[in-house]
Amino acid sequence: MNFKITLTAAACALALAACGNHETPTDDTGTSTAAPAETTTEATTPAPATTVAGAMESTMPASNASTGTAMPAATAGSDKPAAVVENCSTQIDGTDAMQFDVGSIAIPASCSKFTITLKHTGTMPVAAMGHNVVIAEAGDMAGVLADGIGAGVANDYVKPGDARIVAHTKLVGGGESTTVSFDPAKLKDGGPYEFFCSFPGHATVMKGSISVG
Ligand SMILES: [Cu+2]
How far apart are CA 65 and CA 88, in angstroms? Predict the structure, then answer.
């Protein structure tokens, strides 16, 4: 009897001690290691993720807004004002935003010579945002442009001796101006005629109509 009680008591004491010893360390280590692990992962990973997303969100609407405002102006070449003509001459401004400031040029029938001054009002270099004014029949535009690209920047993106071209200025960069004069009688046959920039890609927006009368 006595032997049995002491055995069970010892077993219980061992079991309790064993349970007690095992429970306390695991609880302590479990909570102590889990708590810092959770706070560090939550503090480090989600925080940069939200700031990166926030930064992207703040830049995305800005770029969308800028292209959104640029596109209507770019496609609205015909909505631009007519060039102001005085003394058989006019000035066209070209910008760093790949735009001409006028959408049409009307040459008075009385002019025996007409002069166009192209002013690049931007600051970008000619290699990046060069502009010129090329005049040709609308139907010849695509061919003139394709040959102009082949001629390269050294030829102002104009094929030398291109008979389809009525007149053209040289290619200018930011802050530069250039002038070309021509006989308006050249515009009286055929047509309609267009003025455009032959820098690769620019003529899709940098173009307008030019006519006599
Ligand atoms: Cu241009």
Answer: 40
